[in-house]
Design brief:
CATH superfamily: Vaccinia Virus protein VP39
Strand content: 15-25%
Largest sheet: 7 strands, mixed
CATH architecture: 3-Layer(aba) Sandwich
Number of domains: 1
Number of helices: 10
Radius of gyration: 18 Å
Order of helices and strands: HHHEHEHEEHEHEEHEHHE
Distance between the termini: 56 Å
Number of strands: 9
Helix content: 25-40%
Bound molecules: S-adenosylmethionine
Shape: globular
CATH topology: Rossmann fold
Structural class: alpha/beta
Length: 266
């Protein structure tokens, strides 16, 4: 049996063990907290990006959109007086109450795509990280973000970047450019098997969609620039994060990294 057979067998076994889930609550039954074991570099890179984009601000009411079990609640708590953790997965929200016993936040179940059950113009801050890769067409979500933000309110939106540096090189080798449309990256990311969308987005398209939703781009950062097994093995984590923090602004213009953080304002 060659390695691709092994891969496909393990995928078949995986899919046998997983239930098909309808709707957007497909993170129920998913041990998403386990996904973060061994990913301290990625986690701390994202925390650094959020801290940079929100530095010096304190928001009255903030919402983590698709926040799962609240990985980012400790960080967002530093910048908000009141924080709502929202997610379509009731199980992730239940787990957050155990996982984050020492933090003050409320939870909100999302039952419909692109609908946040809060009043229009009621939020000062919204944060959406690692959700865009589940949204094939995020335009309605951006319109909803516009609806719920107060005038002048801000949002941090993370984009899974299809046009990161190494992908551009790969496409260039085929004498092509990275498509402007979302690129499917496989159903098996994060260990979930289903018809769940997993896509990467071209930031140019996302910027246009944000603009169409009247969300003004204030700042962008290139994030997880050093994501590489080899680098992780040779450079200590604290050194990596210190280099990463400096690169996030320097490489933003060329949209180098696999993840782009965008600060927008209504
Ligand atoms: C990869 S996790 C990211 C969780 C958290 N934001 C983080 O960065 O740790 C993706 C989350 O998006 C949620 N999600 C999936 N589809 C969604 C949708 N249409 N609207 C809002 N959240 C969604 C999932 O339930 C899941 O908790």
């Amino acid at each position: 049996m060659n390695s691709s057979d092994t891969k496909s067998t393990s995928r078949k076994n995986k899919s046998k063990n997983q239930t098909k889930i309808k709707g957007i609550n497909y993170y129920d039954h998913h041990k998403y907290d386990k996904f973060w074991v061994g990913r301290d570099y990625e986690h701390l890179s994202e925390v650094a990006a959020i801290k940079h984009l929100l530095a010096g601000s304190k928001f009255k009411k903030g919402l983590d959109y698709g926040g799962a079990y609240g990985r980012l609640v400790p960080t967002l708590s530093e910048f908000t007086e009141e924080l709502i953790l929202s997610d379509p997965s009731g199980e992730q929200l239940d787990f957050s109450r155990k996982y984050l016993k020492d933090f003050k936040f409320s939870t909100l179940l999302l039952t419909e795509d692109a609908h946040i059950p809060v009043k229009a113009e009621s939020l000062d801050l919204l944060v959406m990280v690692r959700v865009s890769h589940h949204l094939v067409d995020p335009t309605k979500n951006f319109e909803e973000i516009y609806r719920v933000l107060k005038p002048g309110g801000k949002a941090v939106i993370e984009i899974a970047n299809s046009a990161h540096f190494f992908n551009r090189v790969k496409w260039a080798a085929k004498l092509k450019t990275v498509p402007k449309t979302p690129i499917k990256v496989g159903q098996y990311s994060n260990g979930i098997v289903d018809d769940i969308p997993f896509v990467n987005h071209n930031p140019e398209t996302i910027f246009k969609e944000l603009n169409d939703a009247n969300l003004k781009v204030v700042e962008i950062l290139s994030v997880s620039n050093l994501r590489s097994r080899l680098i992780k093995q040779v450079i200590p984590l604290n050194k990596m994060i210190s280099i990463e923090s400096r690169l996030q602004t320097k490489l933003a213009g060329m949209k180098f990294g696999p993840s782009i953080f965008v600060l927008v304002q209504k």
